[in-house]
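INPUT
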Amino acid sequence: MSRLPGHLASLEDEAIFVLRETVASRERPVLLFSAGKDSILTFHLARKAFAPARLPIAVMHVDTGHNFPEVIAFRDAYLKAADVPLLVASVEESIRKGRVADVTGPRASRNALQSVTLLDAIRDHKFDVAFGGGRRDEDRARAKERIVSVRDDLGQWDPKSQRPELWDVFNMRLRGGEHLRVFPISNFTELDVWEYIHAEKIDVPSIYYAHTREVIERDGMLLANGPHLTHLAGERPIITRVRFRTVGDATCTGAVRSDATTIEGILEETISATVTERGATRADDKFSEAAMEDRKREGYF
Amino acid sequence: MSANDTKPLRCATAGSVDDGKSTLIGRLLFDSKSLMTDQIAHVDEASKRRGLGRTDLALLTDGLRAEREQGITIDVAWRYFATPKRRFVLADAPGHVQYTCNTVTACSTAEVAIVLIDARKSMTEQTRRHLFVARLLGVKSLVLAINKMDAVDHSHEVFVRVRDDVTAYLSALPKNLRPVDVSFVPVAALTGDNVVEPTRAMPWYDGPPLLQHLESLPNDEQLDAGARFPVQWVIRPQSDDHPDYRGYAGRLASGTLSVGQQVRVAPKGRETTITKIETARGDVAELTAGVSATVHLKDDIDVSRGDMIVALDDGPRITREIEASITWLHETPARVGGTYWLRHTTREVKATLESVDATFDVLTGAEIPFTGTLGLNDLGRVRLKTSAPLCVDAYRDRRATGALVLVDASTGETVAGAMVLPE
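OUTPUT
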């Protein structure tokens, strides 16, 4: 029996319990997979929950089109090795179809557009539950999220009328048009995630490790320079050694200066970090005090 | 013992409006160095924007727009922090009566309830409600944080008066609700006295600061009871690699389960033997409570989701008639004679609310005869009849198999949480 520290074993058992409860209670589950560490962890736990049977959950990436190429390569290789097919719901496609208008300008991010693409895909595939890798330690609004959370027919989250969630008895009932968002790793912290990845020897995309990259410094954050990023006046790319703490849309995911080339190094940096993962790396959360709540209300994951 | 080897201590916090609960939690996080600089900077900035003279630590936890606008906490917030000795999960519940369902939610999984009292006001109706709900939900340890001691000149007399008020209330509760473990800590959250660091302002207090006290509290575990393993899902790969594999997936709710052990599959009652136990961390000879597993049985018998694998001796009560304490959580009042979906462990059945036999007066803790309405935030005692048998235990003995959730059949809304009473 492998030696997993007690607190990680409890978190693992809880996540597996939630995954099994959900799949047993609903008809058409999908797991949202961005190849970020949290979705990799959720996928890993989902496979454990149903082993040795095949994963009884579809896997889907909501693709903004603004990707890190390394992450897409990792995504495809990882799922191929796991022999699990991938659905891709594309924001580009939603823009082409006129479902959403692309955002323009130097601070434009397609992060908010994902919600429409996701909801269309949920409707098209008739999914009734979407698993996400959201964690309660990420943000003040997330801290108030249920493990099992209802979205109405417009995909909206109403924080004031959330169902009470008592014990671990989950109400999975839905009315027509509604679907559930379920967050099996709600109670993991960023440090727990890295400790678990370390203990279980889980692969993550290379951009989580320190590497040399051309970046633009903006609002105290380091944004990867690339074809999708429009420069502001006076902005000059600099080359420095960085890693990413989160993986999201390439235009609004910031890097941090780092020399951590191993998981041990990342763990050390995470333990001594003085800034939260979203504070360091998500430009879209800096716009207002309740940016995450507002996006979640509109159907964001 | 280090934080990694122990289970986190699950705490619920409750306080009346303006008792300074969010400040206390902010202080716990801040002084235990569980906050990041951007979180602190954010709160500093938000406090300034509101024209506040001092950094308002409450803004750390009040994250929703409505909460910030009204300056109150509306929903349960989950916080995680650790000291070198212990990990903590805090379920921070708002105090106002209209959010009692959040106190219920927070207490449902808590081992410890931290109840805040404003030293100037002593016990309010809200305090009584919080204490009552915590005990009704089976929280073993109560920690009374007597806050704002700075506003009463750190007076020992005031502290003693509040402590005596609380003690008198708790000892007047019905016997089964009287707490096992109660402690009192005088604090001043605003200045941080006795929250994380000891204080010099109250030399008459010889106990530990709040955090140190929490570090020393035991986890609420029971290991020596008969097994309860609710089956969640049957794993049958039907693949070339595993043509005959058949495993029963679930999480052991209480007790222990061993390979070779004779067990019963409830409610039908067939007996068989455990042949193998798989967990996410490999096979084990003995399974302990809380661990997710896939269990294999010797005999090829009909077992499906909602069944429960249980010990031969010390088994659950198998019944369609249940008496339970109840907390009503929805604006639409209870319909006596109405039918609801009832969720118990992994089983969902229809249930009729046969009768409401009493409601509780939280001011005194006494039962009063049912007057016709069991509505939002009301607490009471009911009888339920289910469409199929359930395998239940008294909630006070085993939380997981004594807990019930009622769901409105037409709206799908969660309307009540109920706790099975002893036979």
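end of record. The longest strand of chain B covers residues 347-361.
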